[in-house]
Amino acid sequence: MTGLTVSLIIIGVRILTAPLILIWPIGGVIINMIADSLDHPIAQHFGWGLLGDNHYQYWDKLLDTWYLFFIFLVTRRWKNIRARQTAKVLFFWRFAGFVLLELAGWERVLVFTPNIFEYFYLFWAIVIRWFPRFTLTTRRLIIALTTIGIFKIADEIRIHWIHVHFDIIKTYVLPYIIR
Q1: Who contacts 153 (Cβ-Cβ below 8 Å, separation ≥6)?
Q2: Which of 14, 49, 59, 69 is the most exposed place for a label (fewest CB within 10 A)?
Q3: How confident is residue 142, by pLDDT bands cut at 50, 70 and 90?
Q4: Using CA of residue 93, residue 94, residue 96, residue 97, what is the dihedral sign?
Q5: Has residue 170 got a pLDDT over 80?
Q6: Can you say how many angstroms the Cα of residue 173 is from the centroid of all Cα atoms in its chain?
Q7: Using CA atoms, how far apart are residues 127 and 63, in angstroms rounded to an integer?
Q8: What is the distance between the terminal CA atoms of the chain, rounded to a whole angstrom?
């Protein structure tokens, strides 16, 4: 398989799986998170195609924004105003980071606009599904955002500042799937 073919498959999968979020709010997000985490090692293994020549960050963040938009649409239906408003702020904060990345070309801006939105969404979607009596107080919101924020800022630093990518999938999974 050529790098061009693989890159088209990656882009197609990322585009086509995003609407699943509207049908399957938790599972659809997990599928998209898996697709997002696999695109880099798969392209690295088979060849970059359209994702090469320093275009990977552009495509990755564009496709991330695409599926985050579907998550945002789901959050607009949330009954809890505090959760809905928090999700709105977090979505637009990350979107601002994407726009700044594209305008300035400075990848490290993503460290200052971490994708807390995605994990806050999962947190609240799980609460809605399995803990409907849970009350989102200001204190609980701060604890949730701090916990998610610490994890995501560290992850953004790893990826976008010091450029450490875990090649676990490329090293330990792909060789057994593709021989």
Answers
A1: 111, 114
A2: 69
A3: very high
A4: positive
A5: no
A6: 21
A7: 27
A8: 12
Crossing angle for the helix pair 56-75 and 81-104, nearest 10 degrees?
A: 160
What sign for the dihedral angle of Cα 126, 129, 132, 138? Answer: positive
Q: What is the mean pLDDT of residues 10-31?
A: 97
Q: Containing H/E element for 30?
A: helix 27-46
Asked if the model's pLDDT at residue 119 lies above 90, the reply is yes
**Domain that residue 57 falls in:** 3-177
CB 160 within 8 A of CB 153: no
The CA angle 114-120-126, to the nearest 5 degrees, is 155
Structural domain count of the chain: 1
Sole residue written with tokens 């450490």:
164
Q: Model's pTM, two decimal places?
A: 0.89
Q: Mean pLDDT in the chain?
A: 90
Q: How many residues are recorded in the chain?
A: 179
